[in-house]
Amino acid sequence: MRAGLAKAHDFAKEDPDNPLYKIVSAELYEKAGRRDDAVDLLERAVADRPSADALIGALSGLYVRAGEPGKAEAVLNTRLQADPITLRSARP
């Protein structure tokens, strides 16, 4: 896990605005059985960057895997309400 977190940290140094560090870190926490830490990390990241679709998608997926689909839906609905045009244009 430490090696994975170190690599994710390297990504963050290269591009501090890239959400990959937070997403990879959360995935590593989850795989290590630390789902609460993963949720906390992504909730804080989404609070800091509420328009970061990659973070929102990662948090939503984490909620689903945690058996909380209502929270997943709420996160996605909040984003859709904030910027419906961007998300609608992404649909096939």
3D architecture notes:
The protein has 92 residues and is mainly α. It has one domain (2-89): Serine Threonine Protein Phosphatase 5, Tetratricopeptide repeat, CATH 1.25.40.10. The chain is 78% helix and 0% strand. It contains 6 helices and no strands. The protein has helices at 2-14, 20-31, 35-48, 53-65, 69-82, 84-89. The radius of gyration is 14 Å and the shape is flat. It starts with a helix and ends with a helix. The model has no long low-confidence stretch (mean pLDDT 84).
Shape summary: flat
Distance between the termini: 37 Å
Order of helices and strands: HHHHHH
Query: Which percent bin holds the helix content?
Result: over 70%
Which CATH class is shown? Mainly Alpha
| CATH architecture verdict | Alpha Horseshoe
What characteristics describe this protein?
Serine Threonine Protein Phosphatase 5, Tetratricopeptide repeat, 92 residues, single chain, mainly alpha
What's the helix and strand layout?
Layout: H1 2-14, H2 20-31, H3 35-48, H4 53-65, H5 69-82, H6 84-89
In short:
This protein has 92 residues and is mainly α. It contains six helices and no strands. The protein has a single domain (2-89), classed as Tetratricopeptide repeat domain (Serine Threonine Protein Phosphatase 5, Tetratricopeptide repeat, Alpha Horseshoe).
